[in-house]
């Protein structure tokens, strides 16, 4: 549909809305927010989104309204972000346009839509189970009918079997086809079409023609093909729903990192609880130990340590004092703090990370799987061929309309894309099983195809290239000093103190240890902590983390810590480079630490102190250069980059939000699964292309027979079964052999 077609459709839609306004399920004007002078915004949940075409249609039509300044739909999260010039009261008019297209709308709340998503997933699963059960039973009856075409089955018995098939298939189609029928009806009612319209027509037509044949006592009925086709289509729909659910869970997990309410200090000295979206700059938050910050701000009183992995990706806590900048989602690990709010709600850094993830998922949702691209051209050709067959036999061949329709339906059935529907899923199943034996779990249905195209690998440092935990690498030579320091460390949960305690596990905790938030540990005669806390004027700057220990006024002793590389990190990097892939390192850590890790792993290109936005920007630059980038990361700050990359991996030790943003996760301390994943993906891509070619060849070779009216159910069964068995057998070759044990 071009620009002129869109303008005409928009005009007709507005005219119809003027005659008969679409009823809305809520007053969206109450949910609109004023974003400035004469500027309002609204976040809506759009139910009924099936593909990128729906996204394009909504955005394009809303853009026809000159008052609308922004209309962005995220397919994965079903979120419509709308902005316009005007008053909040105009929200219903803008929402009404989307509702007139046949979509259901609700105010967007990412934390409240889980129940609806689960309900839809259960509905699809039940429909899939019903279709599968019916298809198996109808196929058993059909095998008997096909076997009786040699004359061994009487007409009465064959008709009985047809009616038994109808009794099983028709209720199953009516129930299992509801996801497609509802979507098609809503689209047609709105004066548009979608992919569910031809599906619904084909399934319904096959059932009606088969019912006519059974009523007339004819030889041929196609109940088996109708319900089997619906079964395969539901498999694809369910897998797609699960894949999009991963993206929605990623966003929700990120949004769950902020609290719903926060405690603020009132001007009279009292306290009150307030929703975080109602906080305004200038409010003073009281943040207790163990509490998560609900807004960005500056520390106004107190000293503590924070879990800042959301921003830096580093596991080491961040020491803060008055004047330090802190962000929503960080966790206070030490003493209570007072924080003056500088940004809240949609203006926080955490909200920006959520928007980065959504924007990246939006870009990835435009990626169309190879099978979908083939099916997009395949379906119109098949339907056009069936229509021409009907017209040819009815107008030129001298057949009655019902016989001509039967031949046309045979064309639809013989070209039923069962093998085409199996071509990709069966390879995915075999590849997923192969990768699972290597400790890799695929999370996205298009991951294999995208992984096969990778030519550039970007690695995070902490928790990805390294093990993600500090280890003691340098200690004083005096064992008594080490044991005394370890006795203090055993009383703390600080990561460096725990690393020191792990190095000397047989040392008992000291008595009377007092922890000074953000500084260190102390007893009556010794201290363990930062250089300043232990009176060290010139700490060593060698890129390592450190703890200092002093006792009874004696000389200070330094304990140095480093995050060790994964055991096979250097070998894996070398193996990736040997396969022609370029490898680089992106980290939020300090330059000296990143430089040392890159040198040890054999990586020439690296960048330190990279924020989440900087990582996404770097990936965008590589994509603009034509690179197909695989991102491997584990930190919360890596979630936007994982979603923005062409493909992505994450270790199972990563945060839940990070894993949900990735295409696959891998287990263990080895990095070698990244190589196995890429190798399997490349083999799977070759097999998918072979399967698609085989499926199309088999189906198209039977089309001339169907057009000539020579196809019987037996011929159709042989063609469809043979092509399906062939693609399954070809895919099973991927599972042969054993998974790789490491870089090779």
Automatic annotation (TrEMBL):
Signal peptide feature range: none
Domain HMA per the UniProt entry, residue ranges: 40-106
Keyword flag Nucleotide-binding: yes
TM ranges: 127-148, 160-177, 197-215, 221-239, 377-399, 405-427, 692-708, 714-736
Keyword Phosphoprotein: yes
Alphabetical UniProt keywords: ATP-binding, Cell membrane, Ion transport, Magnesium, Membrane, Metal-binding, Nucleotide-binding, Phosphoprotein, Translocase, Transmembrane, Transmembrane helix, Transport
UniProt protein name: Cadmium-translocating P-type ATPase
Species of origin: Reyranella humidisoli
């Amino acid at each position: 549909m071009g620009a002129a077609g869109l303008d005409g459709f928009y005009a007709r839609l507005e005219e119809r809305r003027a005659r008969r306004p679409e009823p809305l399920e809520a007053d969206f004007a109450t949910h609109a927010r004023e974003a400035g002078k004469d500027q309002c915004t609204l976040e809506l949940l759009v139910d009924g989104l099936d593909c990128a075409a729906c996204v394009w249609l909504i955005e394009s039509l809303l853009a026809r309204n000159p008052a609308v300044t922004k209309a962005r739909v995220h397919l994965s999260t079903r979120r419509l972000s709308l902005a316009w010039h005007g008053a909040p009261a105009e929200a219903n008019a803008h929402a009404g346009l989307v509702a007139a297209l046949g979509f259901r709308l609700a105010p967007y709340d990412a934390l409240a839509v889980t129940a609806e998503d689960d309900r839809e997933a259960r509905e699809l699963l039940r429909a899939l189970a019903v279709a599968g059960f019916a298809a198996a039973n109808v196929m058993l009856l059909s095998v008997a009918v096909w076997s009786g075409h040699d004359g061994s089955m009487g007409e009465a018995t064959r008709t009985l079997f047809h009616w038994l098939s109808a009794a099983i298939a028709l209720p199953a189609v009516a129930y299992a086809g509801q996801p497609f029928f509802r979507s098609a009806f809503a689209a047609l009612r709105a004066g548009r079409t979608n992919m569910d319209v031809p599906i619904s027509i084909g399934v319904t037509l096959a059932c009606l023609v088969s019912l006519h044949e059974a009523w007339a006592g004819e030889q041929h009925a196609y109940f088996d093909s109708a319900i089997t086709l619906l079964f395969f289509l539901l498999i694809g729909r369910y897998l797609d729903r699960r894949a999009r659910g991963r993206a929605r869970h990623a966003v929700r997990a990120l949004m769950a990192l902020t609290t719903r309410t926060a405690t603020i200090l009132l001007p009279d000295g009292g306290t009150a609880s307030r929703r975080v979206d109602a906080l305004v700059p200038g409010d003073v938050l009281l943040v207790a130990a163990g509490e998560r910050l609900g807004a960005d701000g500056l520390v106004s009183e107190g000293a503590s340590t924070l879990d800042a992995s959301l921003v830096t990706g580093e596991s080491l806590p961040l020491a803060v004092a008055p004047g330090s900048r802190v962000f929503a989602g960080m966790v206070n690990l030490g003493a209570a703090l007072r924080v003056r709010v500088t940004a809240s709600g949609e203006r926080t850094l955490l909200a920006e990370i959520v928007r980065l993830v959504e924007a990246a998922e939006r870009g990835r949702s435009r990626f169309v799987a190879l099978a979908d691209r083939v099916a997009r051209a395949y379906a119109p050709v098949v339907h056009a061929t069936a229509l021409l067959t009907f017209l040819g036999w009815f107008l030129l061949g001298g057949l009655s309309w019902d016989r001509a329709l039967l031949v046309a339906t045979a064309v639809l059935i013989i070209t039923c894309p069962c093998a085409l529907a199996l071509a990709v899923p069966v390879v995915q199943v075999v590849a997923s099983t192969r990768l699972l034996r290597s400790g890799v779990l695929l999370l996205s249905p298009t991951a294999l195809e995208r992984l096969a195209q990778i030519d550039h690998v970007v690695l995070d440092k902490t928790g990805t290239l390294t093990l993600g935990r500090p280890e003691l690498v340098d200690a004083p030579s005096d064992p008594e000093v080490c044991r005394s320091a370890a006795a203090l460390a055993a009383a703390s949960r600080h990561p460096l103190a725990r690393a020191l305690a792990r190095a000397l596990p047989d040392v008992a905790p000291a008595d009377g240890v007092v922890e000074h938030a953000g500084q260190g540990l102390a007893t009556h005669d010794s201290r363990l902590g930062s250089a300043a806390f232990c009176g060290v004027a010139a700490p060593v700057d060698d890129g390592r983390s450190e703890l200092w220990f002093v006792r009874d006024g004696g000389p200070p002793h330094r304990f140095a810590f480093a995050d060790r590389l994964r055991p096979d990190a250097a070998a894996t990097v070398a193996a990736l480079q040997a396969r022609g892939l370029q490898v680089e390192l992106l980290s939020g850590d300090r330059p000296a630490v990143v430089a040392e890790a890159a040198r040890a792993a054999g990586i020439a290109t690296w960048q330190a102190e990279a924020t989440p936005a900087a990582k996404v920007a770097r990936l965008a630059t590589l994509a603009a250069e034509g690179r197909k980038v695989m991102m491997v990361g584990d930190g919360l700050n890596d979630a936007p980059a994982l979603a923005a990359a062409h493909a992505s991996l994450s270790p199972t030790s990563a945060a839940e939000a990070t894993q949900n943003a990735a295409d696959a996760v891998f287990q263990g301390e080895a990095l070698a699964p990244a190589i196995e994943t890429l190798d399997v993906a490349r083999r799977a891509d070759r097999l998918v292309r072979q399967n698609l070619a085989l499926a199309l060849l088999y189906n198209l070779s039977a089309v001339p027979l169907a057009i000539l009216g020579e196809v019987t159910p037996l011929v159709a069964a042989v063609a469809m079964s043979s092509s399906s068995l062939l693609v399954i057998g070809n895919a099973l070759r991927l599972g042969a052999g054993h998974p790789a044990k490491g870089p090779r």
